[in-house]
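User: Predict Isopentenyl phosphate kinase's structure from this.
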Amino acid sequence: MELNLQESERRSIRCIVKLGGAAITCKNELEKIHDENLEIVACQLRQAMMEGSAPSKVIGMDWSKRPGSSEIACDVDVLGDQESSEFSKFVVVHGAGSFGHFQASRSGVHKGGLEKPIVKAGFVATRISVTNLNLEIVRALAREGIPTIGMSPFACGWSTSKRDVASADLSVVAKTIDSGFVPVLHGDAVLDNILGCTILSGDVIIRHLADHLKPEYVVFLTDVLGVYDRPPSEPDAVLLKEISVGQDGSWKVVNPVLEHTVDYSVVAHDTTGGMETKISEAAMIAKLGIDVYIVKAATAHSQRALSGDLRDNVPADWFGTIIRFSK
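Assistant:
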C-alpha cells in the first residue's frame, strides 16, 4: 500500500475527529444538514482546539454569501488588530449521512463496474453530493474561526484495491496541518484497482490517518450516546461503556459485562457498513495504543471527549463508549 508520507513528515496531532453523517445531517431526509447540531459541533471543536484563553470575539472566515442573505460577512478590519490564535492540531473527517448514500446505493457505485453507464453517472452524482456537504461543513467551521481546508480523497490521490486503501498521498494532509490549517476530509467515491470504483468510508479514512499521523486520541461523534448491544431504538438496549481490544485486534465488551452477543443493523441505504464497520475500524485504531471515544454529538459528553479530558479519568457521569487497547 502506497501512502506517500515520509517519517519526517509525521506531526504531533492532538486529535482526529469523525463527524458522523447521522449526527450532522437529517439522515432520513435527502441532502438536509442538521444545522443546529453542526453549529454546536463547530463551537465545541473551536473550544477544544484553542490553546490558552480564546479571544472574546470569534473572527469568521467564511466570506461568501449564504442562502437567504444579500450580504457577505467579512471582518477584515477587525482582523487587522487581532492577535493570531494558536490552535492545537486537529484533523476532521465527516461521513455523508443523507448526502451521497442515496446516489451511491441507487447506482451501485460501492460494487464497482465503471463500464456501466449507471455506475459512472452515479459516481459523478455521489461526488457532487458529498463535496457539497464537505463545503458546507468547511464553511460552518470557518464561521467559528477555525481555518479549515476541504480535502476530497479522490482529488488527493486516494484509491483502493478491493475496497482496501491502496494509495493515499498523506503528505498533502501533513503540509496542510504544518501550514496552520485544519484538513476536513470526507467519505468519497474513489477509483478501485480491481473493481473499477467503490466507496471509501470516513471510518476507513480515519483508521489510515491514525495509523500514520499517530494522534493522541480519536473521537467519533454520532447521533446516539455511544455503542449499544443492539439498535438503540429497541427496548432494553444497553450502552457499552468500554470495549477492550486485544493484541490480535479482537475486541470484547468489559463494561458492562454481557451474557449475550452484540447485535447490529445497517440502514438500508448505508453503503459503508454501519456500526459494525465503525467498531472494527475503531478497534484497529485502539490497537495502536490510541484511545477512541464514540459519543453523541453536540452534548456535554462530546465536549469532554473533544477536549481530551477523559484520557486520565473517566467520570461516572460521562456517557459514551471508550475503545482502548488492553495492555
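The chain has a mean pLDDT of 88.
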